[in-house]
## 1
Amino acid sequence: TYFYIIKHFTWLPATVTEAKIRRALCYIAMGWQFDAENILFKIKTDDLTSGKLKKLYDFAMADFYIRSGDNTAALPYLQRAAATASGAQKTRLNFLLGQTYAALGDNTRAYTAFGKAGSASSAPYRTKFNARIKQSEVFTGSDITSEVKALRRMTRYDRNKDYLDQVFYAIGNLYLSRGDTVNA
């Protein structure tokens, strides 16, 4: 369908550009990185005539680089995509941004990004829970007391009864990261 639009709707350049980006996203989803790269790298900045197209392009480039294993190249696109997204997509992109920062070793920014993903009111509880656990994994402060207390509070809630192993594992990892094997 996208190929048809690209070929037969040349008098609508914005529509053709969107079709190219969406076609590239399809290729990325199928694992056809080379074909997606051929499309994405031929799109010029001048072709991105609206905010919608810029957001879609940033999302596609972030997706391309992440699936290619190049987190460093994906970061600026992912930052812009997360900043301009809304609703559930914003939550997903902030979580992915946190994972990307963590993979690059920038734990402070990862902690902040996971915090944004977990604080979104539209996020399902499981996402908020996972974001909080991931936050504890990248905690960089020297005093872990407040972090441990926050995780221990999570054990009191009935909705976390099926996830207690993950909470206690996160607490244990916090203690281990500080060399405290007795409390771990």
## 2
Amino acid sequence: SGTVIHEGDYRDMGRVVFVENKEGYVYIYGGNDNTSVKKGDSVYPGTEIGKASSNKTGKAEVYFSVFKNNRAIDERTAPRT
């Protein structure tokens, strides 16, 4: 759960959505062909934030990262709610 703090094109990751939760973790969802949210929206587990884009072979290609205090966090151990 959190608030969308950025939505749009970002570097070579296609369209991305940055979601910040109340503990200050920032979740980055990249590789979207289009997005379903905008800056300022509240999102919750299960909220659709976008549709994955396809690479040259037709396979979906998505990116997921987590940061806190501008440092990468192991996404396997980051809070999920």
## 3
Amino acid sequence: MALRAKEPKSIEKRLKALFYGSAGVGKTTAAINFPKVYLIDTEKGSENSQYTDILAKNGGVVFQTSDFDELVTEVKALLTEPHEYKTLVIDPLTTLYNDLLEKSAIKNGTEFGRHYADANKQVKHLLNLLLRLDMNVIITSHAKNEYGANLSVLGQTYDCYKKLDYLFDLVFEIQKRGKDRIGLIKK
């Protein structure tokens, strides 16, 4: 068998970013301001005029679903069909992950975290597809408290699959401070 390695080439890398934060801090607004967005909206938030105007201005489109399998099917279509979109936004992944956990708990029970194992397997499959996608990828997530010793609150973290941050080049905690919105770089 012949060796298959090739000389390395520098390629233009696509952005992979995670935005998380409390409700109303601007996660969706920040994400849909990228060029040519293909928005997968899992909470029907894109129906608000503030979002439809931004999407229209930037040449974006919306696909609404609350079903994880439909999300995966749509990502596979983006991988295989020609299109002009430059940025995939999944807003937010939290709702679909929680739905996966519920369905997995019914199917497998919750003993020893069985429901997490099944749900996490499905999310890992999605993440592998996203790595192959030649687009910017931005996923938003709800936030939850992060706890330390004696249940003291250390701050906020994303509320989703625990290893989600491994996929991303950048992880931002979006915050609202007065009238300003800021992104704290977490990775």
